[in-house]
Amino acid sequence: MQMQPTPCRGPVSRRSFLEIGASSICGLGLGGLLQARAASTPAARPFPDTSVIFVWLPGGPPHMEMYDMKPDAPAEFRGIFSPIKTNVPGMEVCELFPQHARCADKYTIIRSIAHEFADHGGGHKRFLTGRLPATPTGFVNDAPMVGSIASKALEGKRHADGLPNYIGLIRAGRDQIDTFSFGAAYLGSQTHPFIVNQDPNEPGFKVDNIALDGGMAARLDDRATLLRGFDKLRRDVDGSGLVRNMDVFNQRALAMMTSPRVRDAFDLSKESTQVRDRFGRHPWGQRALLARRLVEAGASWVTVEMENPYGAGGIPWLKNGVYNWDSHAVNCHLFDDARVRFPLYDKVITALVEDLHSRGLQRKVMLIVTGEFGRTPRLSVQKGTGTGVDQPGRDHWPQAMSMLVSGGGMRTGQIIGATNARGEHPIERAMTPNDLWATVFQHLGIDLDLSFPDHQGRPMPILPFGEPIPELQPVT
Fold first, then answer.
1. CA-based, 20 to 30 A from 319: which of 42, 123, 186, 426?
2. Model confidence over 435-474: pLDDT tens digits?
């Protein structure tokens, strides 16, 4: 998967997001204020105390090596790994997932979600927006990513203490909003995630500018006074309140910079050595732990990118490995890459599942772990670009994929759906990504009939189709 151009400006940087400058207000003439129009916001209403952790595996995880193994299929389909039994009768996972096997009663596997977009760009957009993309390639969204939809729908649930409702934990260099089709389209950049791209595994990890020294605190007081002065101007020129969002980033920054709760939520030093070690002392593990801290503190949606396992946390680069989950034979040796990638994944995902349960968060938090599609059931062999020798791999395959879900009060220890004997397509409980997102929105208390205006003012439903998955409904 190649890095794509980013014509959209993407998310506001942490520095511009957190440094409050008077110029951003003073630079607006009276005419500019009068011409400003903010998008409509849903009426304030009570929301349940629920949240989502979305673990994103970009590139396309190999379903037949992970959660939908076919040991009886012909050799050119089944691969070399064997399934192992779990603590749930009838549920099996890859032999490289021993910790999955011990806690299978705490998660559910879905094997029957599928779509029709095999390009990474089209697959990202189709999966992450719940819509058929206007173009089958490219990463710039023409419809909002589901996280931005949730951010917009939950505006009335924002916390006065400054904790963002929507946070992305994404490594530097891959944190532009269009890299993974995380764009908000017509919902606007104010619904983009607050992106933290520092490595939480690094000693002294902190989010830039959240902590204030004495000099900055004094300047902040001056700027806060200035902003309060402009509140009256905004009320005078726009009694209807249509320009309230003109300084949305400044207001959020002020709240974050003055909030002990925000600083505490991002402070991994408050976790015990034992807990940090259980998640793994690498970026994947510490991002997952940070995600739990953030939803526990009140964030509604945290996206955790788990793309490249190499080069950090003491994990050496593998010559025949690949930085993401895109396991074409030209990119990597599928099985050698899995021998490194899968044990890390096994450790961090099960740590997150068990941690949510041990802390009593299994009803509050819904965990979703997935990529944009699966891999071709038939193995291919090609000469590797980096190795120059023939090696096995699998190509893009949106017709079948597997994912892990947990929490949300659902009954766990389930397998939902099935594919045929060669892992090619669903034969039981065929669903689309929209059914998954309908389930997630329902968990967050978002009305599935909600719509927002697009750039032309036309009402766009948050999902054009899709129904909550019955098997994932909360158990009363």
1. 123
2. 999 999 999 999 999 999 999 999 999 999 999 999 999 9
Same-domain pairing of 246 and 303: no
Contact indicator for 252, 14 with CB cutoff of 8 Å: no
Q: Is residue 336 part of a domain?
A: yes
Given CA atoms 241, 246, 249, 254 in this order, what sign does their dihedral have?
negative
What is the longest distance spanned by two Cα atoms in the chain? 74
Residue 2 placed within a domain: no
* Residue 367 and residue 237 share a domain: no
Clarify whether residues 54 and 19 are in a common domain: no
Are 288 and 379 members of one domain? yes
Q: Show the domain range for 110.
A: 49-209+265-472
pTM of the model: 0.86
Q: Are residues 411 and 283 in the same domain?
A: yes
Give me the number of domains the chain comprises.
2
| Under 8 Å between Cβ of 66 and 345 | no
Residue holding tokens 């938090």? 365
